[in-house]
Design goal:
alpha/beta; 7-stranded mixed beta sheet; two-stranded antiparallel sheet; 9 strands
Length: 254
């Protein structure tokens, strides 16, 4: 094949699909907030929403909202805004909510039971499929049709039984050992509710949920309410504020 023919063949071939854009963590943290707002708009029968309206409801600036949504694709209509239902579907896809993720909860105390009985997992594409504990009085108990197994069984899980996400709700002193067991079992996504900083391999995704830290942060801002408080309506904000929608806007969030 001549050089000219090769060039012609390559020029007539369809373009390769664009590689998915990398979504920064700050944007990932904002997507569920947009999702909640959009769901309220859908329930209210709103057919379209502009980036300005969404920004006002999320307490952000419109340019940031447009930048976040542009990372999901190009589906807004200039002058018309976004279809809330369609936008929810795109956010669901980006967050993996449109897939089914299996969840194992380790530590079946009050918090573990509450999470097991919660409908929140199912509404976010996750299903609790396994429960583990070490208390002889708890092991063997059945909760929502799932039998609590001894934590030692984590080491013998078959590949088909391996959960996608491990949730740690044990006391702090036991959390690292549980994390080690989950990692050895091949679990690469962990959600830790225990008051303990965990050490995991760099290949493992680890998120923390610590209510005591959140209360301390609120206490910090409450103690400095005048320094960090809002100005009058329409005024500028004088510092990072805790948002009612769940975002803390400050210099560390882009």
């Amino acid at each position: 094949m001549s050089d000219e023919q090769d060039k012609a063949q390559r020029s007539s071939a369809p373009d390769a699909p664009d590689a998915p854009k990398r979504i920064p963590e700050a944007t990932v943290l904002r997507l569920p907030v947009y999702q909640r707002i959009l769901a309220e708009l859908v329930r209210a029968g709103v057919g379209t929403v502009s980036s300005e309206q969404l920004a006002e409801l999320a307490r952000l600036n419109a340019a940031k909202v447009r930048k976040d949504l542009s990372l999901l694709g190009s589906f807004g209509t200039r002058g018309s805004g976004y279809d809330p239902g369609f936008l929810i579907a795109q956010i669901d896809r980006a967050l993996g909510v449109d897939q089914n993720w299996s969840v194992a909860i380790v530590g079946i105390g009050n918090l573990g039971r509450a999470l097991t009985n919660s409908a929140a997992f199912a509404s976010r594409g996750c299903a609790v499929t396994a429960l583990f504990d070490v208390d002889p009085e708890v092991v063997g108990e059945e909760i929502r049709g799932i039998k609590v197994r001894h934590m030692d069984e984590l080491a013998t899980l078959r590949a088909a039984e391996r959960p996608d996400i491990g949730v740690i709700t044990t006391p702090g002193w036991a959390a690292q050992g549980v994390a080690d067991l989950l990692v050895r079992a091949g679990v690469t996504s962990l959600l830790n509710f225990a008051p303990r900083v965990l050490h995991v391999p760099p290949t493992v995704y680890l998120r923390y949920v610590d209510l005591s830290i959140e209360l301390q942060v609120l206490g910090f801002y409450r103690a400095r309410q005048e320094e960090y408080g809002r100005t009058g309506t329409g005024g500028d904000e004088r510092g990072p504020l805790m948002r009612s929608v769940g975002l803390a806007q400050g210099p560390d969030l882009d």
